[in-house]
Amino acid sequence: MLVLGIESSCDETGVALYHSERGLLAHRLHSQIAMHTEYGGVVPELASRDHIRRVLPLTESCLEEAGTALADVDAIAYTQGPGLAGALLVGASVANALGFALQKPVIGVHHLEGHLLSPLLAEPRPAFPFVALLVSGGHTQLMAVRGIGDYELLGETVDDAAGEAFDKSAKLLDLGYPGGPALSKLAEQGDPKRFKLPRPMLHSGDLEFSFSGLKTAVLNLVQQQSPLDDATRADICAAFQEAIVEVLTKKCLAALKQTGMQRLVIAGGVGANKQLRAGLDDAAAKRRYQVFYPPLALCTDNGAMIAYAGAMRLKYAQHDYSYGAKPRWALASLPAA
């Protein structure tokens, strides 16, 4: 089965073609970072309009790379939620219009399920069951995953997610938008031991997270050290990143111990962080756990993860071409495949 996947939940337009036997055939991604940088954050109306401009040319490019025609597509998957309502509706309307024109089934995919399953597009692939750490945009969650759709929420952030803390702290340090990647890069030049930052909920005894206080600690440090020189800015970045990595690593290990599982999957944009990968790999190796990541190109939002998740959920495809967006949608509410 050949599935066309469309991702348009926020500020990246992703399109991909996934074949159930041949794997990922093609994927294209357009980022809106340059457009939103002027405003210091995502402007929803501009995001929606840009998705409209990009989605069909990206689809044509994928079809050309895969050497196939639109008529050969067996099903169309799109991100139904969560995300920005207007942006989601662009992908939903295009997917259902194509489905109606081709008389092919259409599948609404949960954005976080796409991230959760994205490591299955890499080699080696994790086998079920596993613990998954979802660190994507506004989400930081630990899930017990026993199969497609069999998800148990173990813990999540009670305020700012890790990705939000990265971006907000980067803004406090005048690192531009989006600040998370810039903060991580600058942290490589800093001394993480110069400043001591808190590790929120590290010893809470549960699998919940909280990163709002860490962001506030960065604000206080910036005010104390102002005006910041380059070395101080790098040292704050290094201390911040080390705090995030320590909390995420300890909570992941606690989740593995609690569930008795041996495999850990990391998914989402923060999963591309070098220090997080190194910390998790080292901690897991000492305890004989296995850690799996999506390919770096598939850590951010992308159409490949939506096409794959859609292929896994073909039996839930709709044929009446009625659609809607789900800006808020609990991952644990999904049915088992």
Task: Give a brief rundown of this model.
With 337 residues, this protein is α/β, with parallel strands linked by helices. It has helices at 33-37, 44-66, 85-102, 111-117, 162-172, 179-187, 212-225, 230-259, 274-287, 303-312, and strands spanning 2-7, 12-19, 23-31, 75-81, 106-110, 130-136, 139-147, 150-156, 263-267, 290-292. Keywords: Acyltransferase, Cytoplasm, Iron, Metal-binding, Transferase, tRNA processing.
Describe this structure in words.
The chain has 337 residues and is an alpha/beta fold. It folds into 2 domains: 2-116 and 300-333, Nucleotidyltransferase, domain 5, CATH 3.30.420; 126-293, Nucleotidyltransferase, domain 5, CATH 3.30.420.40. It contains 10 helices and 10 strands. The strands form 2 sheets. The chain has a 5-stranded mixed β-sheet with strand order 3-2-1-4-5, with helices on both faces. A 5-stranded mixed β-sheet has the order 8-7-6-9-10, with helices on both faces. Strand 6 and strand 7 form a beta hairpin. The chain is globular and about 60 Å long. The model has no long low-confidence stretch (mean pLDDT 95).
Essential attributes:
337 residues, alpha/beta, Nucleotidyltransferase, domain 5, five-stranded mixed beta sheet, 10 helices, globular
Question: Which helices and strands appear, and what pairs or packs with what?
Answer:
Blueprint: E1 2-7, E2 12-19, E3 23-31, H1 33-37, H2 44-66, E4 75-81, H3 85-102, E5 106-110, H4 111-117, E6 130-136, E7 139-147, E8 150-156, H5 162-172, H6 179-187, H7 212-225, H8 230-259, E9 263-267, H9 274-287, E10 290-292, H10 303-312
Parallel strand pairs: 1-4, 4-5, 6-9, 9-10
Antiparallel strand pairs: 1-2, 2-3, 6-7, 7-8
Helix pairs in contact: 2-3, 4-10, 5-6, 5-7, 5-8, 6-8, 7-8, 8-9
Keywords: Acyltransferase, Cytoplasm, Iron, Metal-binding, Transferase, tRNA processing
GO molecular function: iron ion binding; tRNA N(6)-L-threonylcarbamoyladenine synthase activity
Subcellular location: Cytoplasm
